Amino acid sequence: MIVSINKIGGIMPKEKIKILHSADFHLGSPFKFLDSAKRKTVQEAQLNSFYEILKIAKKYSVDFLIIAGDLFDSVQVDNLSLQRVFEGFQTIPEIKIIINAGNHDYWHINSYWNKFEELKNVYLFDPETLYFEFPEWNITFWGKAFTGQSALYNLWKDADELVYAKKRNHLNVLVQHGDILNHESHYNPISIDWIDKLGFDLVQLGHIHNIIEPYYTSRKIPCLYNGCVQGRDFDETGKKGAQLIEIDNNSNKISMTFLPIYQIYFDQIQLDVSNLEQEDNIRFNENIMQKILSDINIKTAKLNLYQLILIGNVSKKINLNLLTKKLEPYFFYLEIQDQTKIKFNYKELLQERSLRGDISRYAKKLAVQPDLLSQVLDDLGMENLPLKDAMRMIEQAYYYTMQAEEQDIDIYEN
């Protein structure tokens, strides 16, 4: 991807600037849902992702490696992990490493970040250091470190004048852990208008774990979320890696290339089992199992973590324990969610003299009598809920009620 950046005053000795943008490694994540052996494997994969970033930086001869927060998952890190990261940075002495601490690995006076200041190629933002200038490239990096687990307001709210005073005749890059997507975020909410007002030329962000398309302000300033380098759960599926950014000082253009990293990943498989059903539950499970195994790469399954989501309409519950036990040998890690819906004969339920029949008839009344539905919402203190949302809620409640075992209840309409 290639975009134009604002024209920069002054002379840039370097024809090109190469920057590798990374963030959110979360080294040392606990992965509590895994057993000890698998936890160790995934944590080692996290560290290998970090090493891979260093190799990429060296391969592409970048000038700067950016780590926009949460290199570590906690402010308490074991000495071995710290030493391995320290030694990793020592393998690329020719590359300048710009680090801005995030809400997980925030800066404090006695933090492990002090150790990294021993390295001449590491530049770490702290409360007293808000920018680093590199005259050889005519570039300035700006950043404000987290000093706690959250930040309800823009960390830069009292530092605008400093930016105005220092940023002239430089390419000004903001390296920041924060949230430009949610103005009510508890993690350094950053206004797009503020970015435009201060006039940065490029914004490199951390905190959002899934890579998103570059966001452009009204002044066409690119704001980039790289995403995390290694997924940690099933909310962080998809490609992971780093962004290679090249700035051409002659044409004032910036190019962005995503470089994927494959160590270990989280994946979701959605399977519609509607057409796989058999009268015999064992055969039904066998059909599901065969379908899954035919759709995945067995070698890959042994290396990664999968979440299997079953959907569709079925007439009986799926034996998840049996299915999981049968499939587990084929996967490094597998969890199964049953989101199938039990098929009901609604017409028969309306005629049935039972609790389920009574509930079906009452649900029908709510569906065809808006005044009755409005009265029910008033009684529940939900009078502001749009009728469309209320109908969706009733449909869902009816479905789950129909799946439940009948209970001996005398009064249920209220």
What can you tell me about this protein's structure?
This protein has 414 residues and is α/β, with parallel strands linked by helices. It is 31% helix and 21% strand. The chain has 12 helices and 18 strands. The strands form 4 sheets. The chain has a 7-stranded mixed sheet, covered by helices on one side. A 6-stranded mixed sheet has the order 6-7-8-9-11-10, with no helix packed on it. Helix 6 (281-295) crosses helix 8. The longest helix has 24 residues, at 36-59. Residues 2-12 and 405-414 have low confidence and may be disordered.
List the SSEs and their pairings.
Blueprint: E1 2-4, E2 16-22, H1 36-59, E3 64-67, H2 79-90, E4 96-99, H3 113-116, E5 122-124, E6 131-134, E7 139-142, H4 160-166, E8 171-177, H5 192-198, E9 202-206, E10 215-216, E11 222-225, E12 241-248, E13 253-260, E14 266-272, H6 281-295, H7 298-301, E15 305-311, E16 313-314, H8 320-327, E17 333-338, E18 341-342, H9 346-351, H10 355-368, H11 370-379, H12 387-403
Parallel strand pairs: 2-3, 3-4, 4-5, 7-8, 8-9, 9-11, 14-15, 15-17, 16-18
Antiparallel strand pairs: 1-13, 2-12, 6-7, 10-11, 12-13
Helix pairs in contact: 6-8, 10-12
End-to-end Cα distance: 58 Å
N-to-C order of helices and strands = EEHEHEHEEEHEHEEEEEEHHEEHEEHHHH
Number of helices: 12
Query: Strand count, sense and closure of the main sheet?
Result: 7 strands, mixed
* Cα-atom radius of gyration: 27 Å
Number of beta strands: 18
Structural class computed from helices and strand pairing: alpha/beta
Low-confidence runs: 2-12, 405-414
The portion of residues assigned to helices is 25-40%
What is the topology, as strand order, of the major beta sheet?
1-13-12-2-3-4-5
What is the arithmetic mean of pLDDT?
87
Q: Into which percentage range does the β-strand content fall? A: 15-25%
* Shape annotation: globular
